[in-house]
């Protein structure tokens, strides 16, 4: 008899159950309070009850947990310094979407050697989130695989759904059950329709397939997530962070009965894929804030210890410590200057509003 299944599957390996990983790496009351309180503050910013700005800043992706922790220590000091104006949350991305091929992130390939030790990747990711939270540093991430939230979502304060997955029904359903605020990015073509439709879909109740804490295939029922928002990241036609773009986006959101509050991704197409241009993007946003723009709720910045990016070398000992292996980032001293200037713009905006 001819085989009709698994023609292209060469291996299946057991996956640790979420309950197993959570029992190995448990949270604490203090960490739970940090996550819950940060989510509440982000919701207050989203609803314009908090005048501060949400800032999601950090490496494009995490490939070295030690460098990420060092970055988190530095960022925590800046978070405390600027807390009157900015709610700083560290960008801690463990999954990377790929148009064709490439490294898919720490969870998928933690050793950078195509061994795809996903069980170890899940444990490393959760351990880093716990370590950062113990510093007092809340985390944000992008969720790609709908199974991953079972392993780390209890430690995440804010989540993005990326430009490539905003149109996906699977990710809209997943977002409807997430416990934190979710930002939907506009599509890679720059159009806003897919993200706005995703926000509408995520507000609704859904029934879909997933896994439970024991790793068993399950039917998941959600209530809908009321805390989604739009993230502008530019597109094929160029940037979309100008005051005209933001006003247009706010009008579209108003027509759909959605909050007219918008986040700007300072990287990707908004920076023409040049990490140094993030500085100019943030300066533009700071200017809009000082002129009284009330639609902007936050920004995203790709930043690491060392500027730029590097290819993964054959000899991993040659990796530059604290430099991205995916998109290029600004370095930490530049990040400090950017966020200090942004914080001053938020303070000035508060004076304008008064």
From TrEMBL:
GO molecular function list: 3-deoxy-7-phosphoheptulonate synthase activity
Keyword terms, alphabetized: Amino-acid biosynthesis, Aromatic amino acid biosynthesis, Transferase
Pfam name, any one: DAHP_synth_1
Pathway membership, UniProt: Metabolic intermediate biosynthesis; chorismate biosynthesis; chorismate from D-erythrose 4-phosphate and phosphoenolpyruvate: step 1/7
A single GO cellular-component term on record: cytoplasm
InterPro entries according to UniProt: Aldolase_TIM, DAHP1/KDSA, DAHP_synth_1
Positions of the DAHP synthetase I/KDSA domain: 44-336
Catalysed reaction, written as an equation: D-erythrose 4-phosphate + phosphoenolpyruvate + H2O = 7-phospho-2-dehydro-3-deoxy-D-arabino-heptonate + phosphate
The protein's Enzyme Commission number: 2.5.1.54
UniProt-listed GO biological process terms: amino acid biosynthetic process; aromatic amino acid family biosynthetic process
Enzyme class: transferase
Keyword Transferase attributed: yes
Annotated family: Belongs to the class-I DAHP synthase family.
Function according to Swiss-Prot or TrEMBL: Stereospecific condensation of phosphoenolpyruvate (PEP) and D-erythrose-4-phosphate (E4P) giving rise to 3-deoxy-D-arabino-heptulosonate-7-phosphate (DAHP).
Name the record gives this protein: Phospho-2-dehydro-3-deoxyheptonate aldolase
Organism from which the protein derives: Pseudocalidococcus azoricus BACA0444
Lineage, opening ranks: Bacteria, Bacillati, Cyanobacteriota, Cyanophyceae, Acaryochloridales
């Amino acid at each position: 008899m001819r085989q009709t299944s698994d023609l292209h599957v060469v291996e299946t390996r057991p996956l640790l159950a979420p309950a197993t990983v959570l029992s190995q790496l448990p949270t604490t009351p203090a960490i739970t309070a940090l996550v819950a309180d940060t989510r509440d503050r982000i919701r207050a910013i989203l609803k314009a009850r908090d005048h501060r700005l949400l800032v999601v800043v950090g490496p494009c992706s995490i490939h070295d947990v030690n460098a990420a922790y060092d970055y988190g220590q530095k960022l925590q000091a800046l978070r405390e310094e600027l807390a009157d104006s900015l709610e700083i949350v560290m960008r801690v991305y463990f999954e990377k979407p790929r148009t064709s091929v490439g490294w898919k992130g720490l969870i998928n390939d933690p050793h950078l050697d195509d061994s795809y030790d996903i069980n170890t990747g899940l444990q490393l990711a959760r351990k880093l989130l716990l370590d950062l939270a113990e510093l007092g540093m809340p985390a944000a991430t992008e969720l790609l695989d709908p199974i991953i939230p079972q392993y780390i979502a209890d430690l995440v304060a804010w989540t993005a759904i990326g430009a490539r997955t905003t149109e996906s029904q699977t990710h809209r359903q997943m977002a409807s059950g997430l416990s934190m605020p979710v930002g939907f990015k506009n599509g890679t073509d720059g159009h806003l329709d897919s993200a706005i439709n995703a926000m509408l879909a995520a507000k609704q109740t859904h029934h879909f397939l997933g896994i439970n804490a024991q790793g068993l295939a399950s039917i998941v029922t959600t209530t809908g997530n009321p805390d989604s928002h739009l993230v502008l990241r530019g597109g094929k036609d160029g940037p979309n962070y100008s005051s005209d773009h933001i006003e247009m986006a706010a009008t579209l959101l108003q027509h759909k009965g959605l909050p007219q509050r918008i986040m700007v991704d300072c990287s990707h197409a908004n920076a023409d894929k040049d990490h140094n241009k993030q500085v100019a993007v943030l300066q533009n946003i700071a200017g809009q804030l000082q002129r009284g723009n009330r639609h902007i709720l936050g920004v995203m910045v790709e930043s690491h210890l060392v500027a730029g990016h590097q290819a993964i070398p054959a000899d991993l000992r040659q990796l530059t410590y604290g430099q991205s292996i995916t998109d290029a980032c600004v370095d930490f001293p530049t990040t400090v200057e950017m966020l200090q200037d942004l914080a001053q713009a938020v303070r000035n905006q508060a004076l304008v509003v008064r």
